[in-house]
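Researcher: Checking consistency across runs. Here is Exoenzymes regulatory protein AepA again:
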Amino acid sequence: MTGKRFGRVLAIVLALTMLAGMVPAFAAGETAESVYVNGNIYTMDDDNPHATAMAIRGDKLLYVGDKAGAEAYYISGVTKVVDLQGQTVLPGLIEGHMHVPNLGQSMLMIDAFWKPKEVILQAVKEAAEAAQPGEWIQGRGWMNTVWADDSFPTKEELDAVAPNNPVSLQRADAHMFWFNSMALDMAGITKDTPNPQSPGRRDPED
């Protein structure tokens, strides 16, 4: 073997040796800690909205696709494989029912979320004292089911702390409002006003 030919062979051998050393490291880097298969995975990708398998390593998704792809490239002897048995997987960091405009509106209102009734009434009183007569007082977040007395609040309770301002407080679930007398008068609502045709209703005792 000539010196030139020997040099070429040696270079090839060295290159193959280096590649062989790199393969395990590459494979280890791609091996998933956990793989989920046989699922209904909603991807939020309009072109490929559903997948059946996904591979995860740490906090990173390595793969989203079918079971064959996950098994071929991401499963090793230490990978935890979970059979979803057709269960649905949804992206966990996507809020599916958030009313974004309400977030901004809430910053301009009385924060009544999960607060005791007495705390809410005090906040209304302070807002009314700082407001001009006739200026609306608005708030959001009350929930009577967390109060010591879980009965529905009354307009008289708001009248006592804000007699000269219309008050509108939305319940946390956004399905009910707590008004004072001035607000009801401005809306033309009395105890004789018929309930609307929609599922909405007024408190028959108010």
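Researcher: Does this match what you'd expect to see?
Model: One thing to look at in this run: Residues 9-29 have pLDDT under 50 and may be disordered.
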